[in-house]
Amino acid sequence: MIQSNLSDDSIGMALRLALSERMIREEDTSVIFYDLSFLAARIGYLVSCFPQNTLHGLAIKANPLTRIMEFVREIAPNIGVEAASIGEVTMALRTGYQANQVVFDSPVKTVTDLNFALRKGVHLNIDNLSELKRVEKLLTTMEYPDFQINITSDHSLATDLPGSIGIRINPQIGMGSILESSVAGEYSKFGVPIKYYREELEKAFLTYPWLTGVHLHVGSQGCPMQMLTDGIGVLYDFAEELNIKRTKCGFPLISVFDIGGGLPVSYKSATPAPSMEEYIERISVRAPKLFNEDFFKLITEFGRWTYTNSGFTVSRVEYVKRDPTINTAMLHTGADLFVRECLNPHDWPHEYTVFDQHGNLKHGHDHNPYNLAGPLCFAGDIIAKNVKLPEVEEGDFIVVHDTGGYTFSMWSRYNSRQTPRIIGYREGGFTILKERETLEELQRFWE
Ligand SMILES: Cc1ncc(COP(=O)(O)O)c(C=O)c1O
What we know:
Layout: H1 8-20, E1 30-35, H2 36-49, E2 55-59, H3 66-75, E3 80-83, H4 86-94, E4 102-104, H5 111-120, E5 123-126, H6 129-140, E6 150-151, E7 157-158, E8 164-170, E9 192-193, H7 194-207, E10 211-215, H8 225-249, E11 256-258, H9 276-286, E12 297-300, H10 304-307, E13 311-316, E14 319-322, E15 327-330, H11 339-343, E16 352-355, E17 370-373, E18 382-387, E19 397-400, E20 421-426, E21 429-434, H12 439-446
Parallel strand pairs: 1-20, 2-3, 2-12, 3-4, 4-5, 5-8, 8-9, 8-10, 10-11, 11-12, 15-17
Antiparallel strand pairs: 1-13, 6-7, 13-19, 14-15, 16-19, 17-18, 20-21
Helix pairs in contact: 8-9
The structure holds pyridoxal-5'-phosphate (PLP).
């Protein structure tokens, strides 16, 4: 079993220590914290759950902080990353990840992006049939004179191609509860829909020996485990069937199976998160050979599950407005840091706690509930409405729980607020993961 969420006690301890060690200065009107021991435990557990040859491509989009990417590499040198853009590929390589630890997934790749990815040797997931044509052309034109593809007698691929290549297939198994993050419905902008293009997909796998991978991603949060497993099942059956045909052609087998990410986390400490063990159990019942290293090399792309519960955000309360039936706590983080929470409040329900200016947890309920409003210049800049909280006063700290993933990575520049200080902590003490943005750096962004 693994701890689901950080407790109020552990958050309070970190906050008080940070205040006493002056890690939260006057100008740090908001701060993001990471419990690095919690994060390390998550990653260790993830690695222990899967076969040894699995490449865990942690989704950079969930957390692109360089110091965190370095930390992950230090504690788990075999772990990899999933990159959603050529920028993220470059960041990973510059942070020290080897090309074969990088999975490149963008749905909009230019020829230049593809060329770069192929030459570097990352695992490339082709998004669509037009991109497949581009890759074929790149591999067979004079740009790649070295990439002679030969099939050896044991059906392995003898090629100078430094990486591996798969294709994203939409299993079309339905939508989860959050439409904006569900990508395996009948329609999706991602991947090749299997029901409509099965023939073309088969043809591709029986034409290109170098196409050795399948990839799916069903959605991020809001997709039940059954739906995730159903998606894997659709691609597993497809790969098994095609592998019989590829054997007849003398082609190497489809051996790279990328199950994507999407295992949900719990944003409510009283609600247990879906368990990784159960997920693996279900996958191995539905797709038994997937966990056998003789047949498949698995890739995973867990972002939210890895990062979210290890972080929390603290904002000082600047003002409290009291109306007849509602109070409004005016905070230093709003839709700049919590874009999804402000635009889709029902889908992203965090927990909130109040600490006084010394970092002591406040208890009880004020008479009226609170809106937690940000500093931005639009009415929708409210990260949560009607929250029951203890009495909030100026100078208190509001903690937004579970902000370690998809929070700072979605930072919006609207209203030109400075990005906050980001602090990691573990037994050895605090470390600054990213300094608060200066006014000069802010100015430079717009130049
Ligand atoms: C292709 C792909 N892989 C992986 C992920 C990560 O999903 P999650 O963070 O829910 O695990 C996403 C998220 O949107 C994605 O689009």
